[in-house]
Amino acid sequence: MNRTIVALVAAFGFAASGSAWAAWPDDKPIEVVVGFAPGGGTDVMARKLLPFVERALGGKAKFVVLNRPGAGGEIAFASIARAAPDAYAMGVVNVPGYNFLPMTRKTQYTTDEIRLVARVVEDPNVIVVPANSRFEDLSAVIAALRSKPGSVSFGHNGAGTNGHLAIRMLAAVAKVEPNEISYRGTAAQRTDLLGGHLEVGMVSLSEIPELHGTNKGPLRVIAILSKKRFASLPDVPTAEEVGFPVTSTAERGFAVPKAVPDDIVRKLEAGIAEGLRNPEYLTGSPGDEPVIAFMPGAEWQKRLDDMSVALRPYAEEMKANEQK
Predict the structure, then answer these.
(1) Which residues of 68-89 are buried (b: 16+ CB within 10 A; e: fewer)?
(2) For 194-206, how does the pLDDT look when each residue is reduced to its tens digit (9 = 90+)?
(3) Whether 189 contacts 155, CB under 8 Å
(4) Is-above-0.90 flag for pTM?
(5) What is the mean pLDDT of residues 70-85?
(6) How far apart are CA 59 and CA 28, in angstroms?
(7) What is the C-alpha to C-alpha distance for residues 195 and 206, in angstroms, rounded to an integer?
């Protein structure tokens, strides 16, 4: 008799829980945490794409973007890990920072506490300078640093971010030491570049849509850290073409707390995929369109596992430098 009662209670509880999850998304805001300041590539991607994900989910979902910049994205990643597993709190993760930071120090989150839902973009790094910069190309930047170490200021969006890693890779290949300056987001880098307070910025391709096809404006791209040139910047050489074989990309996508149920993750993954295919989104996001690279969460996780192995030497280097 007791076993029967326990079984009935368990079955009822499962049914009630299943019914509750089936209602997702309900008329309740879904908070999406972004780990960088407004105006950067991560923020813009989320704000442009999520309205189309709302439509794909039937119009009941209402996403609200919350910016929590700092610590190279760690603050945002930790808030994803700590959120209730009800899928009304999620966030954007930025790779490689997301999987790299825990290798370098004790962080407020672990990747085991977070479940990847879907990758949205794979966005190569580009090196930018003000239009009136003294540097015509990447070779000139490297020559200046070889002549006087630390003489060129190089901006990135925080320790462990893709931009920071790209600078470290470039420094290792070119055997130079730039003066690294950390920012809370690309918008702040842009402000200092235009104000003459920063000489070189390391940002991602999608963050400069106004330059695509022309490379004319207040900023100028001098190199792209990809395997091949991009059609949107046909005259910009790869770093490898000018003698510095470095490739670095920023991957961005969505994640939820680990315990969010499978059916909710599948709904969200499908909604993101459908939003990315929406012609209206594609025409309205010229910066993102060239770098869209959808990948299901499970496949993305496997990619990150492999990537982490390659990143380990850089993590050890960072820890060694901090101990000096």
Answers:
(1) bbebbbbebbbbbbebeebbbb
(2) 999 999 999 998 8
(3) yes
(4) no
(5) 95
(6) 12
(7) 22
Same domain, 25 and 161: no
Q: Which two tokens stand for residue 140?
A: 């000139």
Q: Are residues 254 and 118 in the same domain?
A: yes
Residue 76's domain comprises 2-122+250-323
Question: Are residues 18 and 95 located together in one domain of the fold?
Answer: yes
Query: Given 249, 279, 313, which residue is the final one in a domain?
Result: 249
Q: What is the pLDDT of residues 279-315, one digit of tens each?
A: 999 988 877 788 899 999 999 999 999 999 988 988 8
Total domain count for the chain? 2
- H/E run at residue 62: strand 62-67
CA angle 188, 238, 191 (to 5 degrees): 10
Instruction: Round to whole Å and give the CA distance between 102 and 109.
Output: 8
pLDDT reported for residue 59: 76
The size of the chain, in residues, is: 324
Would you report the helix, strand and coil content of the chain in percent, each value rounded to 5?
45, 20, 30
Both 241 and 190 in one domain: the answer is: yes
User: Is residue 196 a contact partner of residue 130, using CB atoms and an 8 Å limit?
Assistant: yes
Query: How high does pLDDT run on average in the chain?
Result: 89
Same domain? For 153 and 68 the reply is no
Boundary (domain end) residue, out of 218, 249, 280: 249
Q: How far apart are CA 141 and CA 116, in angstroms?
A: 38
